[in-house]
Amino acid sequence: MSGAIGAMRADAAKLLSEGAVKLVLGYCVRGNERYPCFISEAAQAEALDFDQSCRQNLAAYLRKPEVRGRAPLAVVSSPAVCRSLLVLSSESQIRENEVRALAIGPKGYGGILGLGALGAWLKADYPDLVPEQALLDRVAELSAKTAQERAKFWMKEFEKCTRCYACRAACPGCYCERCIVEKNMPQWISSAAAGHGNYAWEVIRAFHQAGRCTGCGACEAACPQGLPLMLLNARLSQDAFEEFGSRPGYELEAKPLIGSWSAEDDGSFIR
Amino acid sequence: MTFEPRITAFVCNWCTYAGADLTGTSRLSYAPNIRIVKLPCTGRIDPLFVLKAFEGGADAVLISGCHPGDCHYASGNYHARRRWSLFRKLLAFTGIDENRVFFSWVSAAEGQKFANLVNKVTEQVRAAGPFGERNLARRRL
Amino acid sequence: MKACGYYPGCSLAGGGVELDLSIREVSKAAGVDLREIEDWNCCGATAAHCLNHDLAVALPYRVLSLAEEQGLAEVLAPCAACFSRLKGTNLRLARSAELAGRVRAVVGRPYGGGVKIVNVNEFCGRLAAGGLKDKLSKPLGLKVAGYYGCLLSRGEGIVEGEDPENPSAMDAVIRAAGCEPVSWNFSTECCGGGFSMSKTEAVVELSAAVLADARAAGADLVVTGCPMCHSNLDMRQRSMGSEGRGMPVLYLSELLGLACGLKPEALGLNRHFTDAGPIASPLSVRGERRPSECGASRNTSTPGGR
Amino acid sequence: MRRFPKYVNAGRALMARIGVFICHCGENIGRTVDCPAAAAEAAKLPGVVLSLDYKYMCSDPGQQMINKAIAEKLLTGAVVAACSPRMHERTFRSAAAQAGLNPYLLEMANVREHCSWVHSERAAATAKANDLIRVMVEKVRRNKALFPIRVPVEPTALVVGGGIAGIQAALDIAAGGGKVVLVERSPSIGGHMARLSETFPTLDCSQCILTPRMVEAASHPDIRLMTYSEVEAVEGFVGSFEVTVRRKARYVDPEKCTGCGDCFNKCPLKKIPSEFDAGLGSRRAIYVPFPQAVPNKPVIDAANCTMLTKGKCGLCAKVCARGAIDYKDQDRLEKVKAGAVVLAAGFELWDHSAYGEYGGGRLKDVIDGFAFERLASASGPTGGEIRRPSDGSEPKTVVFIQCCGSRDDKKGKGYCSKICCMYTAKHAMLYRHKVHDGRAVVFYMDVRAAGKGYEEFVRRAIEADGAEYVRGRVSRVYRRRDGKLVVKGADTLVGRPMTVEADLVVLADAMVPRRGAEKLAQLFGVGCDTDGFYSEAHPKLRPVETAAAGVFLAGACQAPKDIPDSVAQASAAAAKALGLFAKPELEREPVIARVNKNLCVHCRACINACPYGAAKDFEIKDRAGKLLRVVAEVNEGLCQGCGTCAAVCRSNSVDLDGFSDEQVCAQIAALE
Amino acid sequence: MKLLDRSKSTDFAAALAAAGYRVAAPVSDGGLVRIKEWAPGAEIAASEMPLNSMKDFLFPRTEVIGRWTLEGDGFASQDVRPDAPKTAVLFAKPCDAAALAVLDAVFNWDCKDCFYNAKRDAAAVAVLACGSADEHCFCTSVGGSPGEAHGADLLFRPADGGLRMIVEPLTAKGKALADAAGSALSEGQAQADPIARPAERFDPGKASAWLASNFESPLWKELSLPCLGCGACAYACPACHCFDIQDEGSRSESVRCRNWDSCGFGLFTLHAGGHNPRADQSARWRQRMMHKFSYFPQRFGRLACTGCGRCARLCQAGMDIARACARISPRENA
Predict the structure, then answer these.
(1) What is the residue range of D652's domain?
(2) Is there a domain that residue C133 lies in?
(3) Could you tell me if residue B22 is inside a domain?
(4) Alpha-carbon gap: B75 to the closest alpha carbon of chain D (Å)
(5) What mean pLDDT value characterizes chain D?
(6) What are the φ and ψ backbone dihedral angles of E78, each rounded to 5 degrees?
(7) What is the phi/psi pair of residue B14, to 5°?
(8) Which residue of E has its CA nearest to B56?
(9) What is the pTM of this model?
(10) How many domains does chain C have?
């Protein structure tokens, strides 16, 4: 891994010194924590680091005008971040010449990759990024309970939500100019941090990621209250894959899962 | 007092609404527990409409539109089908199960089917009981 | 292809013994190890599905299950009817899990669906292009009418890669044997099939028309892969008018064997009713054949006797 | 000219003043719903200033009541609780409009079909009626005045396809005062009809009745012919389509060409099979497809001309006195503006090579219907004498096989091609007229001769002209050594197999859509059925329209049709187009989606989801023209108002007029 | 001296509950520690730094402050009284108690906020002095101390190596708590443990001075780059007090809520006309710094930060208010 990190630092320094990018988004280590860091000079590239504890999804920064304003950018990208980049690209949020990935993962450093090359790298080295088995087990365990038990479980969890929207902030898929929780006339989702508002927020937030969530886990990691948000995301991803073969973030251009259809879609639940 | 379920139905204008009209013109009777909200197409139904109905205390929600291939707008019902096939599972996973959300295709010619549908749904919800305290989406302030 | 599962079926042990002999001979020549399924049973042929649809699946199911158990990924079923039953069963099992479950319960054996069934045309084609490629030392120089009949030309998903109205799988084999496939009209016409016993006169008429068209097209002989067709075309010639008589009818595997220089009697050529001598004349089979004797004994034998 | 009626409180009212009008519908509603009680209940609702019940709200006095209330109470909205809006919404909305209330501020609560007629218990029905009325009052409180969308109409019709249907549509539109651009992809108009010898059931000469129409179309001042041209791209919508037409290189300047024929008489390439003659005749590399072609100007077939492929020859240019030949000619793209479109893309015959049992297309003397038409045609390759293609001899026995590819969902098409029974009878008849000692045998499944004079025509073929009709299918056709075609079939009426030794076999191949028709449909947003025929908007009530507004269908591109049906539909399509042109502007239901461009982040979900292609990219630029951002926008002309875009928009930046989030949420809340 | 055996923490809570208090205490909840309403059986984690601050009990995240119902053709206002049961906050942090002065000031400077004050009056706050601190603690940099109890009614001092706590009632409310504890407390002697001493990382006076003259500094853009604009820091902060008023309800009833808000949100200053004076995250982050270290001190004479470090502790982006202060006002000998 240290070789991979060295190569990644060298590439970052090269891109900056050549002027190919103006800003490199990466991770640095502070104490026991991994934090995002922003490098604009080649000399600072030594600060870049990467390991499996880097849970923040740096693709989320691409919605910040302050960051976008400094394009072209390079982003230190784990496989999940790469997928997020591709989702953003397919949703016309980023363009090829704006963002490059310094692709890095458990299997090593993939080099400087343009958006067009990410798919091939992912398919070669990480063709089946699925939620971790432990997570799927928890999903299965919860799914096996009665509706009443599930309701009880979620009521207890959702009750903790303070509506700080750290989950939204951490998620690269949440790039709306105006989030639905900010929509009034009519008040779309109650902004009170209580029962129905929390339920609607958590469920709709998850659903808005249907066919788009890349499973990076940044939302759950960001939640100060420790809500098990990945249970929702994983369940949806599983359903979307099983029913529609949805594997977001492997193609540069893809039709959105919600917003496209097939005559062969399952209709057995409809009477 | 017996429990009378409150069921909110979101139906499309062209098939199910017309089908419900046919139920009327055919003088077929059904349980009076349903309240129809008419929309142009099932494709228009936002998932939040369903949550809003539950927020207001509905015991169940029924969504009904044109059969596949019959959509007045060519593909609205296909969009709806994909959306609901995932959303209903998410609802079930969070505790709002299949006794609370129903889906159906009712064409403009299926007056009898509409009556049967409403009766069956009403019975099923009646058997499931009031949503009340178990309803996570219910307004509590 | 080094080894291949082998399902001779009943007719190859009876009326179609020449097919069995020639298949084994050419396989040996090509270095293919035929591994006969142990404890095989009847495929059900035309009888089973007339009586009981489940039985018609259950019989081949057992065969397939045995083959799978014995590690045979691919099984050659030279008889066209056996081929059709076995492969059709694979198809039906794949289409209906419910049927698969029912039959599995009846037979009491598992079957995963993994046994591929090969017919005689496909098999000979592979040998000609493979193991026999360098051994086809005796180009025969004959005009050959390839006759497919029904079971080697039809059946959606069973006979694959063929135009049912204009099949062509035999052409390559015929050419490999140094012969010229003739273009004729009756390659898929019915020979009369199983009416051989019950309505012999119809079979004679139909088979005669097939042979007459082959003759009109300039064919020196007819080749087929089906024991039923073979028996009708070969054995019934004596009842036909001149338009049908005297046309040698060989199995495709026999033709291939001759082209390899294998002995005609080893291939079973001496067992046909219609003299195949002109074909194999350089090898002089004629003298070794005693038609009356053979005919008498074979008239009493019924196919599918196991 | 005042464009909109002057509505009282047309915009959103600060304080709602809503009137509720409850209809008894005689006894229909009143018997089950306590209407006076419902009116009293409605009167209590916030914003309701008036609540009345009346025996027949749809009657004149009932409508007067609404009019008066609107005027006197200055209503900002009205709810009529009565029958289904599908019944009387239009009635009440016009009444409201007359009284000065924007019609879209009136809604109906369906207390008859959805309440009184389906419930019997009075208390429950009344309670439900109260709910339904309340729901509508809450909606109306949030209704906005909507105004029909007006689109200027360009009074030009684009007719695609220059067969009889396209020609007829063009002539009718031009006769009605519209302008027409007629696009035809081959070098001449005329289509398949020009290839026919005679037509059933009158046996009049096809060319004799068609060519005058072709000439008329070409010479009409309001019809512009664009032959040897294809539709390349379509933009815009009903009233103002902008269609890009590819004008293929002709290599002959039609302005200079006089049609003298020197060029094609001198062209050394003589053996190119003529498409027009179904391959039975030949043409040159520079050619007019047939002598009566319109325009009668040749084109060069670039694939075969040696001058164009190898740069050798140039004979035609040498002989052309007018210097009309231009080997450097290139395809050009031309834009055409049109208010309406008539698609008359026509049909072709199914390729019978899938029928191996009939020779799989390999037998020369097994031909299709068009080939027979050319054999029978006086202007055809044989001068109207029936000769078989293989050896040019006169066939003494001709077998006609009907339903070749039709009514056969295994190998061919599941549908009936409708015209084959008739043209086969005609063929048999023509053959017998020309070859008196010949034998015509027709194998048929059923004879479907529904049409004026059709059954009589078939009877004539059988009885007067001695065609032998055999009910049964042919199982095999093969060629014997002696050249005879052996036709083996069954006569199912006598229950016997039969064999006919024929000299010529004519297959009545199924009618199928033109190759490329699907692509054309996609360009115009028209759907196709599973067989590829164009889908009409409604199979019964809107058989000429399509799901794409302003695009109409004519002829066999929609379904197999004979000439009279094609002509009738073409005239109907012309009437539809003229109807559009009758007003300078088009009014459309204002239920359409709108994008809030301030909120849109251009994720393109709506653009992907819109079934009409109405949601599109929109570039926001500053005054200097610099691109600021790209968002989505809904084209008013294309949007049909399904609202799918609104539901897929994650940020709810899209809303639907008439069924806005605010309205629907208020309705849901009213049920609490 | 009065002592509380650490093992008797729950007895203390139970005794208070029996005496009619709503008891709030740091409770372990699925591996995380929160100050929440104590219920019998809940395990008290007295010396842990909870996720949330005790602000939740005085100024809850959502509070109904008005209610109207539809009656006839108009609305009738319903009487909404503050929900302020007698509350004992046990084992609060010194930094949380210090923040009470901030909240008191802001909820009383013009009108007296009855909802806050009612809860404040009904609450008795018992602080446990800190025996340890982590790298995010910086109370000493903002004038606080892990051993002080400003704003509290009772102080627990850790003693005997953490086995006991010395109980020191500071006010009448505190004394009432001690009295209600009954047998949970005992009399005896104990050796007070040393108090934690987190490093002083910056000079707040200098920070304030720098801020006052550096509104336009380019440093804001640089410092705020990692901030993604959530409200986690503000919601965890014991001193943050911004709120939003939202009306919602049904056809027949309207409810007015006061919900927490955060200057980190884009919506916070978004005008109805679409203009946003704090257009980007650097402006919002600057506001947060300015408010805590410049504007608030100017108005109320005290910092609006008590150094609890929660904001930095939970920020995924690594935003750290103390690091930012250290950057602009390094201690000379630090």
Answers:
(1) 593-656
(2) no
(3) yes
(4) 6
(5) 93
(6) -95, 150
(7) -90, -35
(8) E250
(9) 0.73
(10) 2
A-D C-beta contacts closer than 8 Å: 56
Q: Which residues of E touch B8 (CB under 8 A)?
A: none
Residues C113 and C147 in one domain: no
pLDDT at D21 over 60: yes
Query: Chain E residues contacting B, CB < 8 Å?
Result: 62, 64, 248-250, 255, 257
**How far apart, in Å, do the first and last CA atoms of chain D sit?**
47
In a domain, D234, yes or no: no
Where does a domain end: D148, D176, D210? Answer: D148
Question: Is A30 close to E318, i.e. CB distance below 8 A?
Answer: yes
In a domain, residue A199? The reply is yes
Residue A147 exposure: Cα atoms within 13 Å on the Cβ side: 17
CB E285 within 8 A of CB A66: no
**Amino acid, single-letter form, for residue D485:** L
Asked, for residue C128, whether it belongs to a domain, the answer is no
Residues A155 and A73 in one domain: no
Q: Is A116 exposed, middle or buried (0-12, 13-18, 19+ CB in 10 A)?
A: exposed
Q: What is the CATH number of the domain that holds B85?
A: 3.40.50
pLDDT at E73: 64
Count other C-beta atoms under 10 Å from residue E185's C-beta.
Answer: 21
Bridge-based pairing state of the strands D282-283 and D272-273: antiparallel
Q: What is the pLDDT of residues D35-60, one digit of tens each?
A: 999 999 999 998 899 999 999 999 99
E269 vs E242: CA distance, rounded Å: 12
pLDDT in tens, E66-76: 999 887 667 78
Residue among B43, A190, A200, B8 nearest D646 (CA) = B43
C193 CA to centre of own chain: 13
Complex-level ipTM beyond the 0.90 threshold: no
Tell whether D642 is covered by a domain.
yes
Q: Which of A176, A187, A260, A261 to probe by mutation at the D interface, max D CB count within 10 Å?
A: A176
The verdict on a CB contact (< 8 Å) between E250 and D46 is no
For the stretch A47-54, contacts whose Cβ atoms lie closer than 8 Å and that sit 24 or more positions apart, written own/partner, are: A48/A5, A48/A8, A48/A9, A48/A12, A48/A24, A48/A76, A49/A5, A50/A1, A50/A4, A50/A5, A50/A8, A50/A26, A50/A76, A50/A78, A50/A104, A51/A1, A52/A106, A54/A27, A54/A78
Split into its structural domains, chain B has a count of 1
Measured CA to CA, the distance from residue E289 to residue E321 in angstroms comes to 7
Which among C86, C120, C154 is the end of a domain? C120
Q: In this predicted model, what pLDDT tens digit does every residue of C128-165 receive, in sequence order?
A: 998 898 888 888 899 999 999 999 998 888 998 888 88
Which residues, in sequence order, are bridge partners of residue B62?
B9, B102
Residue whose pair of structure tokens reads 């336009």 in the numeric block: E216
C-alpha to C-alpha distance for A166 and D3, rounded to whole angstroms: 52
In a domain, C269, yes or no: yes
The two tokens of residue E262 are 């955060």
Specify whether A137 is located in the same domain as A120.
Answer: no
Q: Of the given ranges (C166-175, D387-396, E31-40, E323-332), which has the lowest mean pLDDT?
A: E323-332
* Residue of A180, A195, A263 with shortest CB distance to B68: A263
Strand pairing partners for D444?
D471
D350: left (phi over 0), alpha (psi -120 to 50) or beta: beta
Question: Could you list the residue range(s) of the whole structural domain that residue C190 is in?
Answer: 138-298
> Are both A6 and A107 inside the same structural domain?
yes
Domain span at residue B126 reads 7-140
Task: Say what the pLDDT of residue C287 is.
Answer: 37
Query: E68, E70, E71, E73: which to substitute to probe chain D, counting the most D Cβ within 10 Å?
Result: E73
Q: How far is D111 from chain B (nearest CA, A)?
A: 10
Lowest mean pLDDT among A107-116, D389-398, E88-97, E243-252: E243-252
> Distance (Å, rounded) from C-alpha E265 to C-alpha E48?
29
Would you say residue A267 lies in a domain?
Answer: no
**Residues of the domain holding A94:** 2-125
Peptide bond into C8 cis (omega under 30): no
Above 60 in pLDDT, residue D222?
Answer: yes
Q: How many domains are contained in chain D?
A: 4
